[in-house]
Amino acid sequence: MLKLCGFRISNYHNKVRIVLLEKGIAFEEDDTCRPSQAEAYLARSPMGKAPFLELDGGRRLSESQVICEYLEETYPQKPLLPADPLERAKVRELVAHMELVVRRLYGSVFFKRDISEGTKNSVEKDLAKGVRAFEALAKFDPDLAGKDLTLADCAAFVHLPLVSLASKLAYGRDALEELPQVKPCLRMRDERPAFHRVNEDRKAATRQ
């Protein structure tokens, strides 16, 4: 059986978990794994990151998006990517624009690490570009990439709240405030059992 290893506060872990639950894939979970540079951990995750997925025969996969793509290809019965190659690429494009920029703020706003004013200003400029690109790509019709649930919705559900929170903490404003479609879209996703379960488990892990 597949085993997802990570921790439930992580948006990357939760993205993979949503995909597993949405697809109805049987899996075990070890939610005690934290990023580490210890030799034993690096043998399981080459960059020392979480999550990673343990397969049969001692094989493993790391990087959340890589894991999601693997699950999509291995368990195609309930697809989370469109059949058309261009539409599949457009979903991947949308996922790529969600939170790569704001991730550079996480150490500062969530863990009180030092960040230079130059970096902070650079992120703010790049964040504006990222939001503009996201607005151009997202359809909200009613799902993020169109009329069907996709990997983009799984990613948005865990990433976009952090984009809002990190930008509020860093700059005093929500970088997504000019996209009124975002919050209703996230609320709609929370009505699906898999999304709601993961979100409730995240809240419980955060409290703990």
Give a brief rundown of this model.
The chain is an alpha+beta fold and 208 residues long.
Describe the structure.
The chain is an alpha+beta fold and 208 residues long. It has 2 domains: 2-74, Glutaredoxin (3-Layer(aba) Sandwich), CATH 3.40.30; 85-207, Up-down Bundle (Glutathione S-transferase Yfyf (Class Pi), Chain A, domain 2), CATH 1.20.1050. 54% of the residues lie in helices and 7% in strands. The chain has helices spanning 11-23, 39-42, 64-74, 85-96, 106-111, 117-137, 151-171, 182-190, 193-207, and strands at residues 2-5, 27-30, 52-54, 60-62. A 4-stranded mixed β-sheet has the order 2-1-3-4, with helices on one face. A hairpin with a 5-residue loop joins β3 and β4 (60-62). The longest helix has 21 residues, at 117-137. The relative contact order is 0.14. The model has no long low-confidence stretch (mean pLDDT 95).
Strand proportion, as a percent range, falls in 5-15%
Mean pLDDT: 95
Please report the first level of CATH classification, the CATH class of the largest domain.
Answer: Mainly Alpha
Q: Rg to the nearest angstrom?
A: 17 Å
Which structural class do the helices and strands define?
alpha+beta
Q: Helical proportion?
A: 40-55%
Query: What is the number of strand segments?
Result: 4
What is the H/E order?
EHEHEEHHHHHHH
Strand order of the largest sheet: 2-1-3-4
**Total tally of structural domains:** 2
The first-to-last residue Cα distance is 28 Å
Q: Characterize the largest beta sheet: strand count, sense, and whether it forms a barrel.
A: 4 strands, mixed
- The CATH topology name of the largest domain reads Glutathione S-transferase Yfyf (Class Pi), Chain A, domain 2
> Which residues form runs of ≥5 with pLDDT under 50?
none
Known CATH architecture of the largest domain: Up-down Bundle
